[in-house]
Amino acid sequence: MLKPAFTTAIIGTIFLLLLSFNLEPGIKKISEISGGDLGSFIKVQGKIDNIKQAESLTIIKISEDNSTINVIADNAQFDVNSSIEVIGKVTEWHSILEIEASRIKTI
After folding, report:
1. 49, 66, 91, 100: least buried by Cβ within 10 Å?
2. d(CA 49, CA 61)
3. Domain hosting residue 82, numbered range
4. The domain that contains 69 carries what CATH number?
5. What is the pLDDT of residues 81-103, one digit of tens each?
6. Could you tell me how far CA 74 lies from the centroid of its own chain?
7. Can you give the pTM of this predicted structure?
8. Contact 43/37 with Cβ under 8 angstroms?
């Protein structure tokens, strides 16, 4: 009885892991991001307005229409005026919403 239950648990865990890697959030407009999104993973698209290099971080300011948000990434290499798509977690720093990027790609 123990072996079938263990086997089912292992198969279920593997299935959930595979499923989670293939799920992506839908695209959200920067202007729609709010405090209610804190801790949530979102996907946004925008044009790079500014890039600041810190010690081990890159702060990328992106805009969409008239809205902007900072994206925090690990030593990312992009060019100003490039269009990017970001998937990441909404966080807050000094009462300002930002996105901790888990994936960034040029579009």
Report:
1. 66
2. 6
3. 25-106
4. 2.40.50.140
5. 999 999 999 999 999 999 999 99
6. 12
7. 0.77
8. no
